Amino acid sequence: MIDSAGAGTARFDLAAMKQALERSDVDTLIGLYADDAEMEIVDRDRPPSAPMRLVGRPAIEAFWRDVCAREMTHAVGEEVVGGGRAAFVERCAYPDGCHVVSAMTLELRDGRIRRHLTVQAWDEMSCS
């Protein structure tokens, strides 16, 4: 498994991101983003024509604090990294049986996330 990617002279630590997501460690997670980072999320409620857009680390932090405060498990896999980019799949499970799969791609700059795209699918039958 590759755990870092060069972007400029700094290196991105994908292993730290994986561990932060799986442990719901928001402080470590948000530290991986650039101050001017942007995040875009496409899912069943936010289609490609009207995705959720978060601009700046404070907005992204609020998003991750909400997600990580929920009672669910996170498992990260299928990591790919190189050329100033990283990608992975996150699989989440709620106690009520709802499952979510998110494909995430990251654009990296100076060892931090500059742009983050998430496309996610939810179990339609078990998620309210």
UniProtKB/TrEMBL annotation:
<dbReference type="InterPro" id="IPR032710">
    <property type="entry name" value="NTF2-like_dom_sf"/>
</dbReference>
<protein>
    <submittedName>
        <fullName>Nuclear transport factor 2 family protein</fullName>
    </submittedName>
</protein>
<dbReference type="InterPro" id="IPR037401">
    <property type="entry name" value="SnoaL-like"/>
</dbReference>
<feature type="domain" description="SnoaL-like">
    <location>
        <begin position="18"/>
        <end position="116"/>
    </location>
</feature>
<dbReference type="Pfam" id="PF12680">
    <property type="entry name" value="SnoaL_2"/>
</dbReference>
